Each structure stands twice: as C-alpha cells, then as structure tokens.
Amino acid sequence: MANKTKFSTRCVHEGEIKDTMYQGIVSPLFMSTTYPWFGGDAEKKPYPRYFNTPNQEYLSKKIASLENGEKALIFTSGMAAISTSIMANVKTGDHIIFQDDLYGGTRNFIQTEFDKFGIQYSFTKGLDPKDFSDQIKDNTVGIYVETPSNPLLKIVDLKSVSSIAKKNGIWTMIDNTFASPVNQNPIDHGIDIVIHSATKYLGGHSDISAGAVISTEEKIENILNSAKNFGGNLSDYTVWLLERSMKTLLVRVKQQTENAKILAKMLDDNKNISKVYYPGLESHPSHSIAKEQMNDFGAMMSFDLNENVDVYTFLKSLKIIKPGMSLAGVETTVNFPMKTSHGLMTQKERDVQGIGDKLIRLSAGIESYEDLYEDLVQAINSSIK
C-alpha cells in the first residue's frame, strides 16, 4: 500500500499480514524461531536476530509508512534503537554533535560508552542553528537531536539543522518519541534517521517495551548490519501486540494532545505553578518554530511547582493521575525527572539544563481534562507547606 492513503488508514491497514488460511481480519502471529533452509543465502531466510520474521517485516512497513520513510527496524527498547543506530554510523576517531537538552538515558550512554571506543562528542551550548554549526569539526560525522526534548520541551529547528548537516556532508538523527509520527515527521524536514521509543506512543498502553528506527533503505541496511551483531530484536509476540496497538495511534494521540493543550493553559494560570513548559503555549520561546514544523504540539508538558509545594506529598496525593517512570500511555502519568529520567546526571548537569527540584513532567492521557485538572489542583493544595 502506497503512502497515498491517509494517515489514519495507514495506522489501521499498512503492514497487515493476510490470513490466507481462515481469512481473519487480524494479522496472524508467527511464533516460530526456526524456518526451513535448503541452500542459498541463509541471511535472507527468516530468523529473529536478522529482524526479518514475517511479523517483524510487516510491522516495519507500517512504522516506515507513518514516518514517510523507506524502511524501518524494530528493537526491544528505545535505547536499543538509539545505541545501535548511533554505533552503526560512527567509528573510532569520529565526532558527533548532540544537543544539550537530552533524555537522560541517551546522555548516560554517550558519557559511559563513547570513551571506551575512542568516539568524540560535544554538547551544544544552546539550540539555535549556530550552536550546532559552531561545534562542527573536521572529524564530525553527525548531529543528534531530540525535539520536543525530554523533559523541558525545548524545540530544535529541524530544517536549519538539516541544512547545516547537508552542507557539511554529515548525517542527522532524531529521537522523535515525544512528538510521535502523529504530531511530527522529521524526514519531511530533511532529517536522515528517525528513532522512537515504541514503548511510548506507538505502544500506548504501558504494556510493551520496544524501539524503532526509520530511514532510507540504504541507511537501514547499514544499521541492520550492526543490529545483527548487537541483538536487540523484538519477540514476535510483542511485535504482534505493537501492531495491534498502532491501529489506534491516531485516535489516542489526538485525544492526548487536545488534553495537553487545555491542561497547559489551565496550569499556566495556576498561582501555585511558577512555569509551564509546553510548545503549544504562545509564551514558549520556540512556539513559532514548533507551529511551523509540527502537525500539533504533542501531549507532553512539564511544570515547576512553587517553592512552597512539597513534591513528594504532591505525588502521593494524586488520585487519578499515576506517578510513573514511563509515559505516553492512555492513562495520564507524572514523573519527577530529577530522580527518574535524569537521575543519572550530575546535579551540575541538571542545573545547567534547568532541571530543578520542583520540576514535574506530565504525560496527558485520554481521560477527561476536567477530572485531570481537578486531581492536579487537589494534590497541589494538599501539598502546600
């Protein structure tokens, strides 16, 4: 099926496996890890670690289609997709530029593993295009970004970064998890490689761990060559569950995004909250860039509680909203980045990024926004010292 069909149709029908035996409308699940071989290239035969079992291949078509890419691979987690994609595109002596505001797990991977392999890296001092171009060296091979960023929802101008990279003959890679394919398609803005933690919006029900990478056939083949060695292939049962979940991707994310837009405005007016970080607010410093490159502003936000509000009491006082480590499920969750997603960073690194001890990250679910706001208000009021 070509990309001429609408996004909602592709969510449901792209990458379906036809049930040729019973004509059921749900894709069959092929659990086998062993397929026959009678000669020829063994790597072209289905084998889980080669990322080419029937369920793996068909779901990859759906994911590639939704990101307007040529091909995709599915991994066991977002970090498996991130680490494999980066390592497949770098060698000893190379240099990569990373934006300063990154998911804590990605930053920890860089700072823990790169020195072991003699890979150089630098973090930008800001997110303006010049901040990226200023970091380019003779041995720079790529630029890695994340927009909107985790947890402060900072925005990177994708067209500008892509233009800088192309002028210098280097690749670009993005973690598009926070936006999802519903709200942002980076390939359309010139980005080469798109990564998702499919644990989040693609799975959407807080019961799947998975990752995905999307690009051209040539670039995916390069990543696949490393992926076969590193492992990280997703089990076919989880692939099947992910394919089922993605059929409702659009309706879920649209509702979550609508809730986020309303909640962000309501929280922005709350006297017990000092700041709201959401690109859909006109007060956001990069609102105009987000409006230009995103289809909508997403379902993630963060906010700073006032100094007189106790964070731990606030978390314990919530009744509908669930404090949790992950995000993007149909249920609304909150997270304390200082101790969770960015807990591996040093205090100095968190201070530089603006991740304070009152910062709360919120992932809007599909519940009633009135009920959600009421829950937030009662929890805040119960936590004032």
Mean pLDDT: 96
Amino- and carboxy-terminal Cα gap = 58 Å
What portion of residues is helical? 25-40%
The tally of helices reads: 14
Unreliable spans = none
CATH class of the largest domain: Alpha Beta
Radius of gyration: 21 Å
The count of strands amounts to 12
How is the largest sheet built, in terms of strand order? 1-7-6-5-4-2-3
Largest sheet: 7 strands, mixed
Structural class: alpha/beta
Kindly identify the CATH topology of the largest domain.
Aspartate Aminotransferase, domain 2
Write up what this structure looks like:
There is one protein chain. With 385 residues, this protein is α/β, with parallel strands linked by helices. The protein has two domains: 7-246, Type I PLP-dependent aspartate aminotransferase-like (Major domain) (Aspartate Aminotransferase, domain 2); 250-381, Alpha-Beta Complex (Aspartate Aminotransferase, domain 1). Helices cover 36% and strands 15% of the residues. It has 14 helices and twelve strands. It has helices at 7-13, 54-66, 78-87, 104-113, 129-133, 158-167, 180-183, 217-230, 236-246, 249-268, 287-293, 311-317, 347-353, 369-381; strands spanning 71-75, 95-98, 120-123, 140-146, 171-175, 193-197, 211-215, 273-277, 300-305, 322-323, 333-335, 359-363. The strands form two sheets. The chain has a seven-stranded mixed beta sheet, with helices on both faces. It is globular, with a radius of gyration of 21 Å.
